[in-house]
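Students often ask why we bother encoding 3D structure as a string. The short answer is that it lets us treat folding as translation between two languages. Here is a chain of 217 residues written in the first language.
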Amino acid sequence: MDLYLVRHGESEIPADAMQSDYPLSPLGREQARRLAERFRGTRIDHLITTPFRRTQETAQAIANACAVEILEEPGLGAVDNGELAVTPFSLRQQRWPEFYANPSPLLDFTLFGGESTQAFFERVTEAFVERIWDRFFLEPVKVVVVCHNETINALLMHILGIPFDGWLYFTIDHTSVSWIDVRYNRPRIRCVNDTSHLGDLSRGHRGVYGGSAPREA
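And here it is in the second language, the structure alphabet:
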């Protein structure tokens, strides 16, 4: 198996909001177009994505270029931010003063009614093992998964056998490609965060999780 973990393109996020389920921005659509051109002519056996507009739109660009059907896997979806996702930035410090008095950079949203670090990691890795790894790792197939920054981080750490504590160790830019293949029945990471298809669009990429207020574009 050749497995390509692809992050979605940039989203159009309104001012004073964070990511919940917004479509691609004009830049994100161009990123997705260039990503699709990278895969054009490649035989993709399975194209898998998550039930969010930003991943669906990115995957659709690949599907159009490669004439492949899109399969949806909710288990690989973005972390559940709870009420944080629907609360404007301007109101958060007032609503959760205890968090902002001692903010944590870790991926844990239980204070806001969302997922814990462990719940997210278990959900993502269980879906990956059941729906992708156990099915395809011994097959001569190409699998493309269009998903999220935190999902790719969790899967890379799972493959490497590194405990996941909610810290995103890998920089995963919009529409970047991380490639894993299988040799002697074991995974081998060939590259991480390859954005060579973006050309000049890869310059000046903005951060994803900054300070105490995660805001994924």
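Translate back mentally: The beta strands are 2-7, 46-49, 70-72, 142-147, 177-183, 186-194, 209-210, 213-214. Keep this in mind for the problem set.
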